[in-house]
Design goal:
The protein is built from 11 helices and no strands. It is an all-alpha fold and 317 residues long. Belongs to the EI24 family. This is Etoposide-induced protein 2.4.
Length: 317
């Protein structure tokens, strides 16, 4: 397989694999819970003698029951049914209704209606954004992160077994903080390259950045549970970028369609659980290209500098 064919194959394979979660989702819970029931130490002949122990085990087993489908539906309900729907009702229901009322009240003076509307519309939008959108957006981010982790852990146990994690709490915290910093810087780098004077080139570079970033988001839960540190995760993506480019493409394209950042965030939160499951199911195509796409290297260098300065100052104190 030559280089170009291998790259195209890896991209297409990543694209197809990214949708596996939408299929696995419908039977994952059933298989996980059947496995739990099969592993149950309860035996029919011991039921009477071990009744107390059985009740305790059943209680614990119920708590361990997989809730991947339930968590996914909750993400859809919160982000689509509550958050996104409320914004749509406000934008396409309440505001047009208020504007219509003003045209009736000031029917004799259309100019006055426009003046009043020019004052009321920004006030209503600001009030709605401050009192409802911003608090709900922050709440959804916190709740989504918990639900995403729950989905990822269940999916990992279903396919891989018990998570390994990192060796110490300090390394765990440092890796998490460093990962958040690198992802934030990489997002900024993607926005920066989108400003390249050649419009088409800038859009392509920004899309590549978002594809790789979303692929990192999806696979990070799996790799984190495997005990991979951040540098290993990023090196693996840079070395096998064609596959991860294809894997992150659907989510990157779908989240860029809305013009509103908040709406884009809702789309991401609704679809992302499927990509977490897809990441756990996928077997990335490796070795498709000999050239590493070192897009993470600049932000890693910046993050290392910031971390070293921060830690160095803290140690000096």
């Amino acid at each position: 397989m030559d280089s170009v064919t291998g790259i195209i194959y890896a991209i297409c394979r990543g694209f197809v694999d990214s949708w596996k979660g939408a299929v696995v989702l419908f039977y994952m819970d059933k298989q996980i819970n059947e496995k739990l029931d099969l592993n149950s130490p309860i035996r029919a002949e011991h039921r009477k003698r071990d009744l107390a122990m059985q009740n305790s085990f059943r209680h614990n087993n119920q708590q361990r029951k997989s809730m991947v489908m339930r968590r996914t539906l909750q993400c859809c309900a919160l982000n689509g049914g509550v958050f996104w729907a409320s914004i749509a009702i406000f934008e396409y229901g309440l505001l047009p209704f208020v504007k219509y009322l003003l045209t009736i009240i000031f029917g004799h003076s259309p100019g006055m209606a426009l003046i009043v509307w020019s004052w009321i519309q920004p006030f209503l939008s600001l009030t709605f954004g401050t009192i409802w959108v911003l608090p709900l957006f922050l709440l959804s981010k916190i709740v989504n992160s918990l639900w995403f982790q729950d989905i990822a852990d269940s999916a990992y146990r279903y396919r891989q077994g018990r998570p390994l994690l990192l060796s110490s709490v300090s390394r765990l915290i440092a890796d998490t903080l460093f990962s958040v910093l690198v992802q934030a810087l990489f997002l900024g780098q993607g926005m920066l390259v989108s400003k390249v004077p050649l419009p088409l080139l800038g859009e392509i570079l920004a899309l590549v950045h978002m594809c790789l970033l979303y692929a990192l988001y999806a696979f990070e839960y799996k790799w984190f549970n495997m005990g991979w540190e951040l540098h290993k995760r990023l090196t693996f993506i840079e070395g096998n970028w064609p596959y991860f480019l294809g894997f992150g493409m659907p989510l990157a394209v779908l989240t860029q369609l809305p013009s509103s950042y908040v709406t884009s965030g809702c789309v991401f939160s609704i679809l992302f659980p499927l990509f977490i499951i897809s990441g756990n199911e996928a077997e990335p195509v490796t070795g498709a290209c000999d050239i590493q796409l070192k897009l993470f290297s600049p932000v890693i260098a910046i993050a290392n500098t910031l971390f070293n300065k921060t830690i160095g100052r803290a140690n000096r104190r």
